[in-house]
Every structure is written in structure tokens, then in C-alpha cells.
Amino acid sequence: MVEGLAVLGALVLDAALGWPDGLYRRIGHPVGAFARLIGGLERRWNRPNFSFSARRLRGVAAMIVLPVMVGGAAWGVETVAGRLAGSWSWFVVALAAWPALAQRSLYEHVVPVRRALAASDLPAARMAVGRIVGRDTRDLDAPGVARAGIESLAESFCDGVIAPLFWFVLAGLPGLWVYKAINTADSLIGHPEEPLRAYGWAAARIDDLANFLPARLSGVLICLAGGGGWRILWRDHAHHASPNAGWSEAAMAGALGLRLAGPLHYDGIRTEKPWIGDEGGIANAPAMRRAETIYLRACLLAWLVCALATGGRAWLG
Q: Which of 97, 99, 164, 225 is 20 to 30 A (C-alpha) from 182?
């Protein structure tokens, strides 16, 4: 029962507060500490004079050091809370888990994009979406901006909500924060280009594994929340370069009845990517609004799944 209360408490705190700017300015965010540790290891172990195999081995070592340190710290917090806080240990664990969730943050980053499009302020919309995507946004038209916002919301539903919850329910506070550390490492060093191709290999592969089940669960939840999209989910999930990101994007494209992805520009270079979804619907501000509604419903469904999973475990235990 304590575990279920901890999960629900973390979800409520995140939904109600997000990660407030004032708190961020005062103490930062745990992911920032991960980034400093990852960056320090990379500077030390990914030197250009090392061979390809030596850099790959050091990247593997980094992905052992990082989870052990983070998981050990989280285990310590969970253990001390259980011993000192007694029946209130769930609240301590919920507080410690709260920063790892991003339900409110994802929503609050997408809404300004939709509002700018609704106001026909394309420059503001490009600026807002540029804060949440890696592609070039300077020359995006309105549908391109809307697609970028919807894709970011759908893909981040897995990384920012479902995967952390999955590992929290499965492995407690250590599972949650080890996942966040792995996901942060993938975003920082898990790139196929030099100079990270060898060193970041382990981070990318481990992140793929950590997201394997959560990504598929994310797609199912989006289809349930959107009342459809199953055909596109099954047909187009493999159109994404990532083995996992395509599930939630295909589900959202199918639920909305429009196309996502397609050719993009990165650093001025056009990258040919296949479309996800069918032609028909128009990516615009109303479509973004529908995507936000689906996202919120999917989050509520995730709450229900967590309650059933933790409640069922307590009943069986």
C-alpha cells in the first residue's frame, strides 16, 4: 500500500506543481547533476587519442558507473525513509520521485506553440517550438510547427511520463532514477556521429532497452485516449529511426488522422524521413489542441494503470 501511495503522491505533486521555476533557480534539478557527471566522464574517457574500441569500452564503463551511483543514492533515500519515516515513508519517496516526472512540464512547453499558431504569430510559434525540438525551425511553415509540437508531445509522453512511471512501479525509487540517468546519458552522448559514435554506443543501446516496453505501452495508452489510431500504430511505428519513439508518434498520428514526421532539416541539411500516418487532417492549432486533450487523457489512464498495478501487488503481497 505504501508503494501505491508513493506513486500516486509523486503523480499528484507533478501534475499540480511541475518543477517550479523558483525551485529550479534555487536548487536546480537532479538531471542537471546527471549531466555534469556524464559530461565529466565523457571529457575524461572519450579522448580523441584513444582507439575506437577503447572509447567504446570506456563508454560501457560510464554506463556502469552512472547507474550504480544514481541507483545507490536512490536506494539509500528509500531505505532511510522506510526506517525513519515509518508510515509516512511513502510521502518521502513521493517527494524524491516527483522531479523525475514531467507531465505538467511537457504540457506547459507545448501550449505556447499552439497559442502562437492560433494567434497567427508564426515567428513566436517557431521560437516556442524551437525550445522543445532539435530540428531547424527558422523556415518551418505553420503545419510544420504544429507537427513538430505534436511529435514532441507524443514522443516525450514515453520518456517523460510512462517510462519513469514504469520503472518506478517495477523497481521503486532506484528504478525510477536509474532510468532518468540512462535517458539523460542517451540524450547527451548517445549519438551515432563522431566524436560520440563509439563512446555513446552503450548509452544508446541501454536506453533503447529501457524504453522497449514503456514505448509500446505509451502507444496503447494514446490510442485508448484518442479513441483510435490502432491501424497506423501497427503499420507505421517502424517508420521512425528510433526503435521506440515511433510507437507513440504513430499512435498520435492515427488518433488525430494526420501525418507526422516527414523530411526535416538539421543544421541546414535536409534529412529524408518517412511520413507517419495518412494524409487528410491538417496539422494546425486545433489539431494541437486535440493532441493535448489526448495527452491529458493518456496521463489519466496511466494513473489508473499505476493504481491497478500497485494495488494488485499489495493485494497479492
A: 225
Of 246, 186, 240, nearest to 216 by C-alpha is: 246
Over its C-alpha atoms, the chain yields an Rg (Å, rounded) of: 20
Q: Tell me the average pLDDT across 270-277.
A: 88
C-alpha 99: how far from chain center: 13
The residues near 10 (Cβ < 8 Å, ≥ 6 apart) are 93, 94, 95, 97, 98, 100, 101, 168
At 188-197, the pLDDT tens digits run 999 988 999 9
Report which of 30, 16, 91 is spatially closest to residue 66, judged by C-alpha positions: 30
| φ/ψ (deg, to 5) at 132 | -125, 0
pLDDT (tens digit per residue) in 73-129: 999 999 999 999 888 999 999 999 999 999 999 999 999 999 999 999 999 999 999
Its pTM stands at 0.94
> Around 75, how many Cα atoms within 13 Å sit in the side-chain half-sphere?
9
Q: Residue 99 and residue 269: Cα distance in Å, rounded?
A: 36
Identify residue 158 by its one-letter amino acid code.
C
CB atoms within 10 A of CB 88: 12
